[in-house]
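Support reply, case 0932

Customer input (verbatim):
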Amino acid sequence: MYERAKRKGKVSPGKNQNAHSKARAEASRWIGLKFWRVAQPYWASEERWSALAILGTIIAFVVVKVYSIVMLNDAGGRFFNALQSRNQAGFYHTMILIALFLLLQLVSIVFQSFFSQLLEIRWRRWLTAHFINGWLVNQAFYQMRFSGRADNPDQRISDDIRLLISDTLSLAVGLLSTTLTVTAFASVLWNLSGPLTLSFKGISITPSGYMFWAALIYWLLGSLLGYALGNPLIRLNNRQQGLEADFRFALIRVREKAEGIALYGGQPQERSRTREIFYSVYTNSINIALMNTKLLAFQTFIGDGPQILPFLATAPRFFSGSLAFGDLMKVGNGFGQISMALSWLVNSYSIFADWHATVDRLAEFKSDLDQINSRKTKFEASYSGNGSIVLNEVNISLPDGHNIISHLTLQLKRGQTVLIRGRSGSGKSTLFRVLAGLWPFGAGHIQLPENIKSLFLPQQPYIPIGTLRRALWFPSLTDLERDEEVRAALAAVGLNHLSSHLNEEMHWEQLLSLGEQQRLAISQAILFKPDWLFLDEATSALDEEQEASVYQTLANLLPRTTIISIGHRQTLEPYHSRVILLTQEPRRSSVTG
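Our regenerated output:
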């Protein structure tokens, strides 16, 4: 007897508009807020105090480094004054000071580097685990492919997190060092510059600390020009990261689908496709190289200025005798230190561009994860009192809102063997995903049995890389030593020859045919002994004789298991006590018979 669960298609308006609005809002958010949203979980975690201690140590060594540079500048001035006055005692005294401050500088640089790397490693370890947890919880890794925003999550977790942390620490330490250096040397330039009278059309001004103002103006002009030259790098670097990930994924896809491509003779098409993707990588790389070349030329030009400008500006006072030779060198070095520190913003623009692009990608990834993990399904779930699965007025749609199953009312009783049939595209597999709790798109009320053990086997089984023993018990890790049961289960599905390979670690999906993989999945069901077993075309690669043997084996070895099969073959009907046919009719779906 057939029962018909009829469905109709219906388009729901604008269900993705909210998602697009959120995407636009996220894109326009200030980069600092984006960064804090990504980084904040670590600094609020259980590791925050140790992380703050390491960060404080880094800051302390930066302060010591800047202090040693300032003292070296002062000692250098005394050194040149001692040379000018032929003061032998002063010469050796300043040499000792210079050696001590050089040693202090070396120690501070070495320990700052060590603790920066330590913080980077710890931060990356924690943040990687945080993102992996968010990606693998609530089937977010599965549902993310429907959002269409955060592509290549593997690249964002493996590469972007590493780049984010290393670039953040580099920029933060550089900014701190710049601030301290400018603050420390500003007084040096201010005190040693002396007055300078500027006249223009009868108007004269005498600014104090003119060398400090000269360094500030020099940096300001350089920064503005550097920003104009370097700003396009943000967009280019963001695009480059995405293109590199697409190219890597295309190569991985060829490796994973090698047999299918070879059987189709699709090598020319795949070669053309991968070369086309790489050409985009190549073109964007050329644009980045051109922009980096322009920026490097400008940075080099700006960097050479402090070597001559301060001496030209202070030469009149030196030759007039109002400025000692050592003080002249202190002014020159101080101007160079301030200019170099302030020019850090220009010199670091390529790093900032990479950092900006990385923050954008991770913020987008986190936004998708948060949206998926906070998404509330419209399916209302409850427990049935009679141990059955009951669907009442269930609508199932595609991610774009288009309904594929409408107003489905159905009861699956415990102890039955049920076959759900229908034409391709009728929604059988999507119903399978709804029952598995994977598919969030739809609405309706679903009653499930309480405290049951369910197993869902898809058409393409998942076999993890590793030993065959672990693959058979996946995802459990507690029953790995029950070898007699494993051998009996393999023998029941005609895979006796695999019993001697339980401890071999291989890529089993590549070694076994699809039919062998499906029989291996059936052996998993025999081992797990689930209360409910859902099979979605799980025997489609078997011939009729093998298929009959599998269902007979399941009936004999799992007599208490409720089996729900999804398939399109009529040959499956004899092994089921009830058949439900999904059909498409322009009216309300119902179950009859």
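We compared this against your earlier run and they match. Two observations from our side: Residues 88-136 form the longest helix (49 residues). The chain has 20 helices and 15 strands. Please reopen the case if you see a mismatch on your end.
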